[in-house]
Design brief:
InterPro entries: Arylamine_N-AcTrfase, Arylamine_NAT_domain_sf, Papain-like_cys_pep_sf. This protein is mainly beta and 218 residues long. The chain has helices at residues 118-130, 181-192, 198-202; strands at 7-16, 27-39, 42-46, 59-60, 65-68, 75-81, 93-99, 106-111, 142-149, 152-160, 163-168, 171-177.
């Protein structure tokens, strides 16, 4: 983006615990990273790595800004407000929310506009990787890609632990249930184009996330 003449910076985001099944209105610490980009005098949230309820296009930083989620009936919006954990009533931040078609708004994550340095990112990564109990990344396997029709985003394909689901325009379908690591390797290659090498395949051995059943074809 900078090579195209845009001014950009990265900042940390706190993911809402409700995203992974926790209580509503409560946030984790800095465990996600977003880009903030200035273009033609306006500031935008640019986030391509969050998941199925994150933005599918740049979202202008404007209080109450609502954007359609891909070519579906879902929506995302930004609010400038405080969160329940702030002690100071005047403290505010940007809160990203997502709403499925016909549903209620649900918090996704919140962020400020403070630029994060390489050292800040290092601290975030250390906590995320080393906190075996407090970081869900250490006990949940998750992989996601957007489902496209032409140039339009219409849904997602998500692997969570051993289950692969496709959600298109609100319709959910389970397309594979993996019982072993062999099954999961095949699912990653078939549905996400990810091919793991021998060292990568062996890296999960002995961890709580390892699938220890027999392959589907046995």
């Amino acid at each position: 983006m900078r090579s195209l003449g845009m001014r950009g910076k990265r900042t940390g985001a706190r993911v809402a615990l409700s995203v992974s099944g926790g209580p509503k209105g409560v946030y984790a610490g800095w465990n996600h990273l977003v880009n903030l980009v200035m273009f033609e005098g306006r500031r935008y949230l640019v986030d391509v790595g969050f998941g199925g309820n994150g933005p599918t296009a740049p979202l202008e930083l404007r209080d109450g800004n609502v954007m359609q989620w891909g070519s579906t009936g879902d929506e995302v919006r930004l609010l400038w407000k405080g969160i329940g954990e702030f002690e100071s009533p005047e403290e505010k931040c940007w809160v990203l929310e997502h709403r499925r078609e016909g549903g209620e708004w649900e918090e996704v994550y919140c962020f400020t506009e403070v630029e994060f340095t390489e050292a800040d990112v290092g601290v975030m990564n250390w906590k995320t990787a080393r906190d075996l109990r407090g970081s869900f990344f250490n006990h949940i396997i998750i992989c996601m890609r957007t489902e496209m029709e032409g140039e339009d985003v219409v849904g997602t394909v998500v692997l969570r632990d051993g289950v692969v689901k496709r959600v298109v325009r609100g319709e959910s379908q389970t397309i594979r249930v993996c019982k072993s690591e062999v099954d999961r390797w095949e699912a990653l290659e078939e549905h996400f184009g990810i091919v793991l090498g021998v060292q990568e395949r062996n890296g999960i051995k002995g961890m709580v996330t390892e699938l220890k059943g027999k392959p589907e074809d046995e």
